[in-house]
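Rotation project, supervised by the postdoc (A.L.). Task for the rotation student: set up a whole-complex structure prediction and record inputs and outputs verbatim in this book. Inputs entered:
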Amino acid sequence: MGALDEGHFNVELKGNGVKLGGCIELGFEEERETTVAIEDAVKVLLQGLGEDINREGLRKTPLRVAKALREGTRGYRQKVTDIVQGALFPESGLESGIGHAGGAGGLVVVRDLDLFSYCESCLLPFQVKCHIGYVPSGQRVVGLSKLSRVADVFSKRLQDPQRLADEVSSALQDGIKPTGVAVILQCSHIHFPNFESAFLDSNHRGWVKVIVCSGSGVFENDKADIWGDFLSLLRFRGINVEKIHPRDSDDKCWCPSQAISKMGATNSGMIAAVASILRSLGEDPLRNELLGTPTRFVKWLMNFKNCNLEMKLNGFGLCRLDAVRSNGNEGIHSELNLPFWSQCEHHLLPFQGFVHIGYISTEGVNPIGKTLLQSMVHFHGFKLQVQERLTRQIAETASSLLGGDVMVVVEANHTCMISRGIEKFGSNTATVAVLGRFSTDPVARAKFLESIPNSATAG
Amino acid sequence: MGALDEGHFNVELKGNGVKLGGCIELGFEEERETTVAIEDAVKVLLQGLGEDINREGLRKTPLRVAKALREGTRGYRQKVTDIVQGALFPESGLESGIGHAGGAGGLVVVRDLDLFSYCESCLLPFQVKCHIGYVPSGQRVVGLSKLSRVADVFSKRLQDPQRLADEVSSALQDGIKPTGVAVILQCSHIHFPNFESAFLDSNHRGWVKVIVCSGSGVFENDKADIWGDFLSLLRFRGINVEKIHPRDSDDKCWCPSQAISKMGATNSGMIAAVASILRSLGEDPLRNELLGTPTRFVKWLMNFKNCNLEMKLNGFGLCRLDAVRSNGNEGIHSELNLPFWSQCEHHLLPFQGFVHIGYISTEGVNPIGKTLLQSMVHFHGFKLQVQERLTRQIAETASSLLGGDVMVVVEANHTCMISRGIEKFGSNTATVAVLGRFSTDPVARAKFLESIPNSATAG
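Outputs recorded:
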């Protein structure tokens, strides 16, 4: 075992007071106990949300959440040495002339690695576009895929972007012993609206982004010329050097949960349950960065509490009256790109995207106004959901508001499609509901579908 | 076990005369025997290429290839029922009015799933962008990730695009019993230049592409209106309906290996080795579609035979003379986007991309001509390589042709980064070599790097 062994890992763990110690690989029995402990905690959370844990869609949710969390934090149980060992290959440098290449001094860059990690501030997954450069030395190079695998070990832990970049960079420096390592991460965190503010402010859009970098060896000085070469090879990737988050910034944590408003009393049983999940994953809930995490996660979750629904229901009843008055020329109208947030009831993970509503109206205008439609969308989004049901519920409500001829398309990015074994990063999902004339008239459907703009779901 | 059990799989296997029968899961011992058998076959291939199988970079190549092939064909050992079972959820349809949504008739589309598969015609991996739509019935929907997982089972076999689409579509139809399933695959296969033609024709570029579709239930009729809805939701993805490959086309197989020229005697020991690999994976080398596969794979491989190098070496010697004559104004010049193909010696898998060469010259023109530089790039590409070494070798040869001040950037897509456990689809790699003044002058480097266009490596 070299410098990149569990020393680094153990020091970090000890520093954080985590008790895993040297026991990295859990036995089958321990594995099962951990899973059961997380399941029990998830049941507490579901009950705190006012849900029936025996309802069909939720019955296996605790197990699914436990498996996803274990899988998503497997980096705590992986050793970097196992990955790098045996993947260092001798490559001679340039044979003649002054210069650098091959196994000596020629920059190697692997770009656009898709990763995800869990935010230590709120427990939600965030996406990472990772770029790694290193300058070989000692006439040896590392197998290209190992750069990705090492980054993966550290991303599969509870993280903060800067720490993730620092850990990847120093683990590669220790493991490959190159002239230097540079890491740039483009991180995207789902926006964190709360139930109240979303109804007031429909401009909240998808993602909070941050770019961080870390360097070791010749990259340690961030003014070094070699950074220029590295950044040149990352052009066209939306990396604005000016916007790289300064390490010593006084900015508060990037996680939008830090700004979440106080919203009444929080359920101490739920908070204790989240703390027990942290312990089950091998973390220490008393580590400084994790102190408020259970509370923040519960606050996020409570946005999707079932009984929040009643609150707004009356509003819709009133508006139905307006929709009846209509005459004039019939036509297909649409309200496009209404943002929504929801929580997948199968995995307790957010999905987020846009709703497009088409309707046939004798008036040229939306009889009830875009703002009310947006509120209706949030109304159905803010609970534990599946996208198919959300689409149907929006269509039924829209039908009562806009007349019976309604078509609804929901386009969404599902965190559960990236943050588990499946890891299908670019994928997204569209669901359709048709009511009235739209169900029998393909031309009407086509006309509405054509009006939907591209990339509504793009991060 | 429902209709989507191994019946489908066994029938297919029996039809192909494969002897796996009901024994899908191999025991540890059998697993080890299979791996060793593939390793032995790979050693025969390496020796046939004139390589020393004990050389450092190649020592573990047989094991790496065996593991990658086993992993990449794990679909032969997976059951679709295991995936879909327990992931069907009750969802009611629309409660009022005429229409479709939720668990009854509302289209559900999962888009942009990245997959890879192995081409049954040549054994090289190909990339797949997969889009799946289905119309729920019986008031039940399937967990969204299961669509991806089922597609993955069939992609992890030796495949042809149309068959892959058909198998995914019929497995989902059998497993979910919906009103219908639609599958569209955008497949990209690495181009298959042979050593001879690449030197003659530098217009050969990256990828051979094909779009296929398959439908069942309401999608069985490809003129059905519902196809219009599905395709509308796939707009902006470069799917030109006109270009969907007709199922009953007389076109020969899409795989470029089918058009490869005869190139002398082939090594019967190598061909037998590939046939034994097919058997180890659970396939039948006598299945119709696989009959020529070992020969085609060996022909591809022989492009990268070590001794091909000698053949062209003299050509470069002659040209060096030209490069000396130069005077006038000094400046940084570049030859950009020189395509190359090479074969990763760690995984016996192709990597492919573009070479950019910068040099400082007192003349305003490339003293030896782009064609010769292109030949030099092919010369170094067509062997078992690692990208770092390729970059260094090109730089050293370019230095002797263009004067001592040379900078080389190689940008490549590595099949080994997508077609194994790692599956980092969008990633690509840049390597840099600098010689002479470029190694000390960051401004010269920056000027050359800025001249490199975007997306040279894009598929």
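Student's summary: The radius of gyration of chain A is 25 Å.
Supervisor addendum: Chain A is about 35% helix and 20% strand.
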